[in-house]
Write a structure and sequence with these properties.
single chain; 499 residues; alpha+beta; Cytochrome p450; 4-stranded mixed beta sheet; two-stranded antiparallel sheet; 10 strands
């Protein structure tokens, strides 16, 4: 009877062999195993080469290519390196999609086409347009936003005045940056004593370090969550979703209870509810309460990345006191409080900010894209629905262009007259239609917080402690290792550094 199983065995062998075949014209890369692809190889290389960007760098050298073709679980994946191809991939409409996979659906409470960041097609275009327009109407990029940022800066200054000894800058900044966007979204700020928010920040930090931008093992082998829910991070994501939903519930309940059609749209939630009511007769409307929650989540996570960048700037002030002295020298020449509109007077400060964003690859890999159709890139064929991972670190650390990318040198962004130059290859907020929605808010927060604090304080390492490490913790967002700082009040010439 054994011969009965021969056809089934032959079909199984044929299927497994077929599952290892690369698509025609696909970019070069490592051969993959049936069913799991290159999962184990990439996991091994991530540990050896300090994260996913290190994997791409290694494979790029090994196969002598700027486009690397591989498979992670069932997903066909293309990694893109080098400025010409990166710019093309970021700006072409064919690569404006987002992957539809297990990890992305976990982020959006198990649903597809939710929020703004991890959706595409007509849904994305509609909600991106609504979000941009509404935030602009609420003051995004104008005086209202500047006022919110300066109010939060004042809160930071008050916290520093009450602090004796050292403080972790990330604790100082997390609530403040979030409160700017939260005030636009809800009309209220969150107090630092909010324990729920502290818990959320810690879960978000763990999420960032546990996964890479492609979702890690949990995304590539989803069934493994049943065997190891803690180790794979599945339990953590469930906990995060639960806490986020709970966190947003109170704000949403207050707005739905107090909503009045005649009330002006004085925050994002009221504006969204108004749009929901306008479309309530449409059974296919995408303006739903779940969509609102996920959009708030998108804004929440974007604020967290801004915190990381400011944290790194303060870290470099400690590690490079001569640069801190130059920053103080430029800032001291300006007697008034420094606002976002004043940035053109601070070329060196801006150069320091640019160099931090170049040197520290906070977003080493841009948010994953999906090929919306069969297309070509760099002479290779990219299949429809392939996941495209864009290596921003390869742009910011390109030795041929930057010459000495491993050296922290703000002067690379200044010409002989001290004017800003050389910024076209600095793309920390991405490019094209998928460019970060909140890049204007992020840049304003970074500049105003940096200048406002440096006007008043000198930043040093606490006595007896090791200086901060420039090695980042890899993950979805690359994070600095925890450190503490002393903010020492300077002899101030200006009488009112904030207003």
């Amino acid at each position: 009877m054994w011969y009965v199983f021969l056809p089934a065995g032959a079909l199984l062998v044929l299927f497994l062999w077929w599952d290892t075949i690369r698509p025609t014209g696909f970019p070069p890369g490592p051969p993959w195993l049936p069913l799991i692809g290159n999962v184990f190889l990439t996991q091994k290389l991530k540990r050896k080469y300090d994260g996913q960007h290190g994997v791409f760098e290694y494979l790029s050298r090994k196969y002598n290519t700027k486009l690397i073709g591989m498979r992670l679980g069932s997903e066909i994946v293309v990694a893109v390196r080098g400025y010409p191809l990166v710019k093309e991939a970021l700006t072409r409409d064919e690569f404006c999609g987002r992957p539809d996979n297990f990890f992305s659906r976990m982020r959006t409470f198990g649903k597809r086409l939710m929020g703004v960041t991890f959706t595409d097609g007509e849904h994305w275009e509609e909600h991106r347009s609504f979000t941009v327009r509404t935030l602009r109407e609420l003051g995004f990029g104008r005086n209202t936003m500047n006022e919110l940022i300066n109010n939060e800066l004042a809160e930071i200054i008050q916290t520093l005045e009450r602090t004796n000894g050292s403080i972790a800058p990330v604790q100082l900044l997390s609530f403040s940056v979030l409160n700017v966007i939260w005030a636009l979204a809800t009309g209220k700020r969150i107090e630092q004593e909010n324990n729920t928010l502290k818990d959320l920040f810690e879960i978000l930090r763990k999420r960032s370090t546990l996964f890479d931008i492609s979702g890690g093992l949990l995304n590539q082998i989803p069934w493994i969550r049943f065997l190891a829910p803690e180790w794979t991070g599945y339990s953590l994501l469930l906990k995060l979703n639960q806490r986020l939903a709970s966190f947003f519930t109170q704000a949403l309940n207050d707005h739905f209870t107090n909503y009045d059609d005649l009330k002006s749209s004085d925050d994002f939630i009221y504006a969204f509810i108004r749009e929901m009511n306008k479309r309530s007769h449409d059974p296919n409307t995408t303006f739903t309460e779940t969509q609102l929650v996920v959009t708030l989540l998108d804004l929440f996570i974007a604020a967290n990345i801004t915190t990381v960048i400011i944290n790194l700037i303060f870290m470099m002030m400690i590690l490079r006191p001569e640069i801190q002295a130059n920053v103080h020298r430029e800032i001291d020449a300006f007697k008034d409080s420094i606002r976002w509109k004043d940035r053109h007077n601070f070329s060196y400060v801006e150069a320091v900010i640019f160099e931090v964003q170049r040197f520290f690859y906070v977003a080493a890999i841009s948010g994953p894209r999906r090929a919306m159709q069969d297309c070509e890139l760099g002479g290779y064929k990219i299949p429809q629905n392939a996941t495209v991972l864009i290596d921003l670190k390869s742009v910011h650390m390109d030795e041929e262009y930057w010459i000495d990318p491993g050296t922290f040198r703000p002067e690379r962004f200044l010409d002989q007259n001290g004017q800003l130059v050389n910024t076209e290859r600095l793309i920390p907020f991405s490019l094209g239609k998928r460019k970060c929605l909140g890049d204007g808010l992020a840049r304003a927060c970074i500049f105003v917080y940096f200048c406002g604090i440096m006007q008043r304080y000198e930043i040093t390492t606490p006595e007896g402690e090791e200086p901060p490490s420039v090695q980042l913790i890899p993950g979805i967002t690359y994070l600095p290792k925890p450190y503490k700082a002393i903010f020492k009040l300077r002899g101030m010439k200006q009488s009112n550094p904030i207003s």
